[in-house]
Fold this sequence. Notes:
The structure holds two protein chains of two kinds.
Chain A: H1 2-8, H2 20-47, H3 51-58, H4 61-94, H5 100-106, H6 109-112, H7 115-126, H8 131-136, H9 147-172, H10 175-183, H11 188-217, H12 222-226, H13 236-245, H14 249-280
Helix pairs in contact in A: 1-2, 2-14, 3-14, 4-9, 4-11, 7-9, 9-11, 10-11, 11-14, 13-14
Chain B: H1 17-21, H2 25-54, H3 58-67, H4 69-102, H5 108-116, H6 123-134, H7 140-146, H8 155-165, H9 169-181, H10 184-191, H11 196-225, H12 228-234, H13 244-253, H14 257-284
Helix pairs in contact in B: 2-14, 3-14, 4-8, 4-9, 4-11, 6-8, 6-12, 8-12, 9-11, 10-11, 11-14, 13-14
Protein name (chain B): Sulfate transport system permease protein
InterPro entries (chain B): CysW_permease, MetI-like, MetI-like_sf, Sulph_transpt2
Keywords (chain B): Membrane, Sulfate transport, Transmembrane, Transmembrane helix, Transport
Amino acid sequence: MAPRARIRWQSRQPSVIPGFGLALGVTLTWLTLIVLIPISGLLWRSSGLGWANFFALAFDERTVNALAISFGTAFVAAIVNLVFGVILAWVLVRYRFPGKRVIDAMVDLPFALPTAVAGIALTTLYAPNGWIGSLLEPLGIKIAFTPAGIVVALVFVGLPFVVRTVQPVMEEIDKEVEEAAATLGANRLQTITRVLLPGLLPAGLTGFALAFARGVGEYGSVIFIAGNLPYVSEIAPLLIVIRLEEFNYAAATAIATVMLFLSFLMLLVINTIQSWSRRRYSNGA
Amino acid sequence: MALDIGPTPTSAPSTPVGAATSETRLARATLIALALGFVGLFLLLPLGTVFIEAFRKGAGEFLAALGDPETFSAILLTLTVAGIAVPLNLVFGVAAAWAIAKFEFKGKAFLTTLIDLPFSVSPVISGLVFVLLFGANSALGPILQSYGVQILFAVPGLVLATVFVTFPFVARELIPLMQEQGTSDEEAARSLGATGWQTFWHVTLPNIKWGLLYGVLLCNARAMGEFGAVSVVSGHIRGETNTMPLQVEILYNEYNFVAAFAVAALLALLALATLVLKTALELRYSDEIAASRRH
C-alpha cells in the first residue's frame, strides 16, 4: 500500500522529513476502512433499490413527515441558538462579572455530556410533573412529548456551535472601528447593528449552520423528550431505527441516503455562504 | 451614566468617552441577565437535575444502583470500547496530522474534508452503515459468521461504530497545531543526525503533547458517551452489549429512574472532569494547543 501511495501522491517539495509514505499510507488505509467503505456500502445498497422503489420509500408519507419534523425543529432551535449564542458570546467577551470563567467553560457542556444523559434530564425537567413543566402546565403550555420538546433538546445540543464560532471573531474586533463609528456620530445601537453585527454575520451564519446540521441528525437527546408520535414528533433518525428493528433495511437505507444527501447539500450551502461573506466583508472573519 | 441613553450626535462632545463605545449600565445588566438565564435554564438546570434525581432516595440507593451486575458490566464495556477506539484514533490522528501538516501534496484539502466527514453524519447513520456491511443480509456478514466471527451485536461492532463517530477528533486538533509549528525543528534534528523515529519521539512528540492530550480528551468523552451509533449496532443484549449510555436508556424506560440517573451521574461526572481538564489545558498551554477552540 505505502509504496504505491508514494508514487501517486508524491510530496511536492523534496523534504528531509521522513515518514510521508508511512503516515499517508496509515491515514488512507484507516480512512478507507472506517469511513469510505461503510459510506459507499450505504450508497451502493441504496442504488440497488432502483429509482422507483427508492422514491416510493423515501417519499413515503411518514418518512416525509419525519424529515420535515427533523429539519423544522432543527431550524427553529438553530435560530434560538443564533440569538442567544451571540448574546452569550458578547457577554463573555465584553463584560466582567463573577463566575464568568465557569460560565465560559460550561458552554462546552453539551459537547462533553452524553446525549442520553441530556435527554433524560431535560425530559424530567419539562415533563408535566417536572420543575419547569409543572410551572408551564397551568398556562396551557406543553413542552415534553411535543415538537417543542424536540426544540428544547436541540437548543441544548447546538448552543456551543454558535458561541464557539462567534466568540473568537468578537475577540478580534478592533475597538478603533467602534470609536470611528462613534466619532462619525453613530449612537451605540447604530454602531452595533450597522458596524459590529455585519462583521459577525459570517461567523454567526456558520455557527447557525453547524447547529442546524447537528440538530437534524441528533438522536440521543431527542428520543426521550419527543414522545415519538408518528406524523407529529417522530424524527427521521428515529424512523431509521424503527425500520431497522422491523428488518426493513430498504426503507432504513432510503431514509439514510436522503438525510446524507441533504447534509451534504447543507455543507455546500455553508461553504458558499462563507466564501460569499468573505468576499463581501473581506475582514478575514 | 443614566444620561447616556440615546445621545444625539450634537451632544457627543459632552458625553463621557466610554459611552459611545460601550453599552449603558441597563443594557449591560439586561444582556448579562439574559445570557446567565439562558445558561442556567438550558445547561446548569439539566446538569443539576441529573445529580438531584440520582440521589433522590439517598446515597445508599445510588450506590446500590451502581452495584447492580448489569450496570457494572455496562461500565466495563464502556471502558473496553473506549480503551480500544481511542488509541486507534490516536495513532490515526498522529499519522494524518504528520502527512497533512508536514508535507505538501495533491488532494490535501480533499483529504482533510474526508477526515471531517463523520462529523456531518447522523449518529444513527454511523451505526446503520455497519449494520448494512455486516448484517445478516449483507455480503460480508454470513461469510464472517461461518468462521465464527461476530461483528454486530458484539464488541467489534461497538468499537467500529465508536471509531467512526470519533474519527476526526485527534486529527482535527493536531493538524492546525502542527501546521503552525512548521518543520524547522524536525529539519534541525535530522541535520544533526537523528533518525526518523528519534526525530518523532524526541522533537515532534514533546512539541505536540498537550495538543494531543486535548484531542484525546475530547475523543474519549465522545467515545464513552456515544449513544445513537452504538445503539444501532449493539442489539441491546442485557449484561453483554449495553454500554453505559444504553444502560441509562434501558433503566429509564423501565421507570427505574434512580438507577438510570445514577449511571447518568457517573457519565455527567466524566463530562465535568473533561471540562475541567480541557479548561486547565486551555489556560496553561494555550500556545501549545491549536489556537482556536473549534470542534
